[in-house]
């Protein structure tokens, strides 16, 4: 769905001069690229003068091109998706233009975490993980990437960590949990049955459940003991997990770095030993 600013431009298109229409056409087609452009770059792309770009911003009621870029970036950031849904087929961009768009949407998605994630919940999650006897991470599909990343990172910290894509294998681990353990459930939608079932069974054993899931009041969000809410940046029906995966990985990184900051001095020798083995055995 178009943003308010883009709608304003689209609706006024017939009233614009030919030069303004050329600028408008490029902006409407490549809105995601504009926040990272200079007046010169947009002028070249639209085949107009820099002065025309500057005047255009004032024509649509924005004081400067810089202000226009900020306003557009803010509006684009709250859209659900504009490269991960199937509407991307309507645009035939070059690989470099695609790169620019991917960088832009990933950056905006990560920045939106600051709005969706509650500081107190983050503090609680760090303390729960730090004091855990055992940690189980679980996610399926795109969310399994974040779970696997967490497995590697927290293993390096010396924790007893489990993750496996096999649901039945993970079921076999649940009966061994207790109140000293933590189950980290990772799901964009918060409605994935395998994730929900394991989270619920873990709670029955007394383990605390930390959810990394969208801030959309899903079953996982409601039932978790600690909620690390990711922003809603993708639709369920999409071409692949891109921006949502970036938000999950960013939260996993934040948990890992936070705990390393607390206990890192206690595991430096182990880090150095592991690094020494890697260098020695490198092939």
Index terms:
283 residues, alpha/beta, Arc Repressor Mutant, subunit A, 2 domains, 12 helices, 5 strands
Note down, in words, how this protein is organized.
With 283 residues, the chain is an alpha/beta fold. The protein folds into 2 domains: 4-113, Arc Repressor Mutant, subunit A (Orthogonal Bundle); 115-281, Glucose-6-phosphate isomerase like protein, domain 1 (Rossmann fold, 3-Layer(aba) Sandwich), CATH 3.40.50.10490. The protein has 12 helices and 5 strands. The protein has a 5-stranded parallel sheet with strand order 2-1-3-4-5. The model has no long low-confidence stretch (mean pLDDT 87).
What is the element layout, followed by pairings?
Layout: H1 4-12, H2 18-29, H3 39-46, H4 50-59, H5 65-77, H6 95-116, H7 119-130, E1 134-138, H8 143-156, E2 160-162, H9 167-173, E3 182-187, H10 193-204, E4 208-214, H11 219-223, E5 226-230, H12 243-281
Short description:
The protein is an alpha/beta fold and 283 residues long.
* CATH-derived architecture of the largest domain: 3-Layer(aba) Sandwich
Helical region count?
12
Q: How are strands sequenced across the largest beta sheet?
A: 2-1-3-4-5
First-residue to last-residue Cα separation: 51 Å
Unreliable segments of 5+ consecutive residues? none
- The percentage helix is 55-70%
CATH topology of the largest domain: Rossmann fold
Considering the protein shown, what is the CATH homologous superfamily of the largest domain? Answer: Glucose-6-phosphate isomerase like protein, domain 1
Order of helices and strands: HHHHHHHEHEHEHEHEH
In total, the number of strands is: 5
**Strand percent estimate:** 5-15%
CATH C-level of the largest domain: Alpha Beta
Query: Mean of the pLDDT scores?
Result: 87
Shape: elongated
């Amino acid at each position: 769905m178009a943003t308010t600013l883009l709608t304003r431009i689209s609706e006024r298109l017939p009233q614009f001069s030919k030069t303004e229409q050329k600028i408008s056409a490029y902006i409407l087609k490549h809105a995601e690229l504009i926040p990272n452009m200079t007046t010169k770059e947009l002028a070249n792309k639209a085949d107009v003068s820099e002065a025309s770009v500057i005047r255009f911003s004032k024509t649509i009621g924005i004081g400067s091109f810089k202000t226009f870029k900020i306003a557009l970036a803010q509006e684009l950031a709250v859209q659900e998706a504009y490269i991960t849904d199937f509407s991307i087929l309507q645009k035939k961009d070059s690989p470099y233009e695609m790169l620019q768009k991917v960088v832009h949407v990933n950056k905006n998605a990560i920045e939106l975490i600051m709005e969706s994630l509650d500081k107190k919940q983050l503090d609680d999650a760090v303390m729960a993980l730090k004091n855990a006897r055992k940690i189980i991470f679980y996610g399926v599909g795109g969310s399994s990437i974040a779970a696997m990343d967490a497995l590697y990172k927290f293993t390096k910290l010396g924790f007893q960590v489990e993750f496996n894509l096999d649901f039945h294998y993970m079921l076999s681990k649940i009966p061994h949990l207790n109140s000293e353990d933590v189950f980290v459930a990772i799901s964009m939608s918060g409605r994935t049955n395998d994730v929900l079932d394991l989270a619920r069974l873990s709670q029955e054993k007394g383990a605390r459940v930390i959810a990394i899931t969208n801030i959309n009041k899903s079953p996982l969000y409601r039932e978790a003991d600690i909620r690390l809410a990711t922003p809603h940046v993708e639709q369920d029906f999409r071409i692949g997990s891109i921006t949502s995966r970036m938000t999950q990985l960013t939260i996993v990184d934040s948990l890992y770095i936070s705990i390393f900051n607390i206990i890192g001095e206690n595991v430096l020798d182990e880090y150095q030993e592991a690094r020494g083995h890697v260098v020695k055995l490198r092939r």
